[in-house]
Amino acid sequence: MMTDAQLALHGLAIKKHGRAAEVAEITALDAATVERLLDAAVQSGRAVKTGDKYMLTPTAQIALKASYSRDFAAQRADDAMSAAYDDFERINEQLKSLITRWQTIEVGGRSLPNDHSDKAHDDRIIDRLGDLHERAEPILARLAAGLGRLSVYHTLLTAALEKAEDGDIAWVSDAKCASYHTVWFELHEDLIRILGRTRIE
Amino acid sequence: MAGWTIRLDGGDAANKPLPDKALIGGKGLSIARMAALGLTVPPAFVITTRACGAYQACGDFPDGLSAEIAEGIAWLEQTTGRRYGAGPSPLLVSVRSGAAISMPGMMDTVLNMGITSETEAALGAECGDPAFARDTHRRFHELYAAIVLKADAGDLSPDGDPADWAAQVERAAGIPIPGDPVDRLHAAVRAVFDSWNARRAKRYRKHHDIPDDLGTAVTIQAMVFGNLGKTSGTGVLFSRNPISGERTPFGEYLACAQGEDVVSGRFTPQPLDAMRARAPGAYTALLEASDTLETAGGDVQDIEFTVQDGTLFLLQSRAAKRAPAAAVRFAVDMVDEGLIDRQTALSRVSADQIRSLLAPRLSEETASAAIVAARGEAACPGIGIGTVVTDTDEAERRAAAGEDIILARATTSPEDLHGMIVARAVVTEQGGATSHAAVVSRALGVPCVVGCGYGAVTALAAETMTVDGSAGAIYQGALPVEDPDEATLSDLRVLTEWADALSPLRVVAPEALDEDGQGDLLDLNRIDGGEDPGRLPALLNGARVATGGALSTDAGIKAALHAGLKVVVGRPRLPLLLAAFNAGKPPEDRETVAVSASA
Question: What is the CATH number of domain B233-347?
């Protein structure tokens, strides 16, 4: 089990370079608490703050990773969680190819950036993303059964999907907002850290 | 007949009105339109939205629907000379949903309905390719499981047999796939009706004020086969070249192959000449259909077709996706040909397409004279010049200090995001088009080349390089970059002239601004928050002439128009004019002229 202070640092490690409110969003801590905890981390030399964004220091990163085997011992010993993660990896492959189809279109055998001038194409990909989301939901529930705070990702993914369905297409894969792809990648990163897995590229 | 179904026969279509879209849905209407143009489409019938309404009301098929489905199938059998669920020439059908308004969450298409162990054998004998028939049977299990049963059965092994697949599906779904093809058909129709109440569909209707009682139609269409011998085949045709925009049809053909083969990459497609040689009648019919569909649709078409025993069947025709250069050429040419007006032409070209045409590039001479340091897969277009850095934190630090940096990594992960955001280009050694580096670079709009090979890019550390993300090449040194000029490209000049006349906003180049204008000019680059479209109404505050900041984006132009801005100063001018012209217009309903069962 992590303390809130550790969890705030863990959330910052996933965000890498983020605001307190952003870290709060993925850790399900409240924003004021995260700000207090991260400011304390800055005081003790574990994080640095530029503008309103925080970043872990290299030593704090190493210390954080070193403590994962203890922090997440229960999850790492949980066969159901491991199995859920393996299923997540399978859907992750589908998500990557779907996002690629979102970003690039085939025109006459050539691959071009999707300029989003074809709404029917975009709608279709968003519909496929919704299908994928529904396939992912039971897996997300199994992961959250192993670690309750992970349920926050389901909420964020659903919110991003619904914004995309309602026509705000930045919420599919924009790297600068909590888009479906951004949140999914952060969840992936969180899971890799929790379970001590390595990323397959 | 209780009238739950409508046949899309197109027989004397010219003499009778098209069925109501509210009754047969958008996809059904597309098939009816194609048939009404006198084109050959695989025969289909539609279960109407009225039947869906009755199903929702009583929770079951209304009286007479099962009988009408049976009659519809019998009609398809008679029209095609094939039999549903039996040899020697089995009829396979597709089942798809289709409401009058498309929405997320509705059931996707199920293909190959009607295949059983018996019909698999018959189909294998008929096309002389038992492996194809077996694979069709496998794909049927996968689709039926995923779409009708909503079960995640995973991939079914191509080496397995139908009993294994059925067992794997039953384990995942908790219920078996019905053995009788008629029961399967009924289950698929129910699944379409039920998908009307899928969570995503309901939420979408609520959000968009779409009434809950419209209902969805179900289209059941015969599938055609492009692999029944050497006068059969399948392909894609663009009515004009979608890359260059030239007014010549452009396509690919696979002789003796089924639709999936084109997608699977199992075969290399041939140019259309191969079709002319093997199925000359179908080839002529295809070129005629291309003209008919383009004229009817008022836009360049992307047409999917299958030739079965020498007969051309049109499966789908829709407005073609196009490269930016083609978008411009189509717009100008089609006005010249009298097919569309200038307003329509302008609405079909986006500001971003023009920006990408005018993006800095390497001239051919420069690129061919340059020394290639590494090559990989082009992942995100654009030119990036800078010093190669292999450590992400170092890249961020040096970029913050004002240096131009190229981030070179073996692969990237979310831990590298902060370095990717500030880099002029990202290059990697491993991974392809779906790798993290490729996906994130595209989301950021950072030029990117991936998969250059082990050690190929990290070895370039500290050197100055030019990355061409469109060519997938990394060149030594800082190469001279060329900025195309909108005034020297004739199609762009024509569009600019039209846009000047039709845009609600005047756009002037900085050097053309007279002294009066200079006095009034509000420079958003010099104002805090000037890059945020949301703040424009407050910042513009009645200004008449402005430049910079958020005005470089479509959202900014839209906000400025609402705020009453009259003149924007900037260049290139055409993207700004187009952004203003297209601001607030709903996207053109480029609804497909026809969608049908792609086999």
Answer: 3.30.470.20
Q: State both tokens at B62.
A: 């209304």
Range of the structural domain that residue A43 is part of: 4-71
Contact B415 A16 (CB under 8 A): yes
Out of A58, A119, A189, whose CB is closest to B587? A119
Please compute the mean of the pLDDT values over residues B259-275 and round it to a whole number: 72
To test the contact with chain A by mutation, choose from B317, B439, B444, B589 the residue with the greatest count of A C-beta atoms within 10 A, namely B439
Q: Are B443 and A189 within 8 A, CB to CB?
A: no
**Residue B597, pLDDT score:** 37
Please answer whether residues B95 and B218 qualify as being in contact, where contact means their C-beta atoms are separated by less than 8 angstroms. Answer: yes
Q: Given this model, what pLDDT does residue B529 score? A: 85
Residue A27 and residue A89 in one domain: no
Contact B104 A14 (CB under 8 A): no
**Residue range A5-21: average pLDDT?**
93
Of B352, B439, B592, the CB nearest to A100: B439
* Residue labelled with tokens 């959000």: B207
- As assigned by CATH, the class of the B5-222 domain is alpha beta
Q: What size, in residues, is chain A? A: 201
> What is the distance between the alpha carbons of residues B510 and B501, in angstroms, rounded to a whole number?
19
Statement: residue B228 has pLDDT above 90:
no
Backbone angles phi, psi at B77, to 5 degrees: -60, -45
Residue found by looking up tokens 């597709």 in the block: B94
Shared-domain flag, residues A63 and A79: no
Q: Are residues A111 and A191 in the same domain?
A: yes
CA-closest candidate to residue B467, choices B390, B380, B359, B354: B380
* Residues B449 and B475 sit within 8 Å (Cβ to Cβ): no
Q: What is the CATH number of the domain that holds A44?
A: 1.10.10.10
Determine how many CB atoms are found less than 10 A away from the CB of residue B22. 16
Do residues B413 and A91 touch, judged by C-beta distance below 8 A? no
* Facing A127 at nearest CB: one of B104, B207, B433: B104
Q: Please choose, from the candidates B289, B179, B219, B243, the residue with its C-alpha nearest in 3D space to the C-alpha of residue B43.
A: B219
CB B269, CB B252: distance < 8 Å: yes
Structural domain includes residue A119: yes
- Higher per-residue confidence, B122 vs B151: B122
Q: How many domains does chain A have?
A: 2
For residue B598, name the pLDDT band (cuts at 50, 70, 90). Answer: very low
Q: Which of A155-164, A168-177, B147-156, B439-448 has the highest mean pLDDT?
A: A155-164
Name the fold adopted by B364-476.
Glucose Oxidase; domain 1 (3.50.30)
Q: Which residues pair with B84 in a beta bridge?
A: B91
**Model pTM?**
0.85
Q: Between vectors from CA A64 to CA A58 and to CA A66, what angle results, nearest 5°? A: 105
- Residue spans per domain, chain B: 5-222, 233-347, 364-476, 510-570
Alpha-carbon gap: A196 to the closest alpha carbon of chain B (Å)? 15
Strand partners, B304: B236, B316
Compute CA distances A71 → A2, A22, A63, A193, B425, whole Å. Answer: 6, 22, 12, 10, 38
* Beta carbons of B443 and A130 less than 8 Å apart: no
First to last CA, chain A: 30
Residue A200 lies in a domain: no
Among the candidates A24, A52, A71, a domain finishes at: A71
Which residues, including other chains, have CB under 8 Å from residue B355's CB and lie 6 or more apart? B572, B575
pLDDT tens digit sequence for B163-212: 999 999 999 999 999 999 999 999 999 999 999 999 999 999 999 899 99
CB atoms within 10 A of CB A106: 11
- pLDDT beyond 50 at B596: no
Q: How far is CA A3 from CA A7, A12, A13, A19, in A?
A: 6, 14, 15, 20
Number of Cα atoms under 13 Å in the Cβ half of residue B559: 21
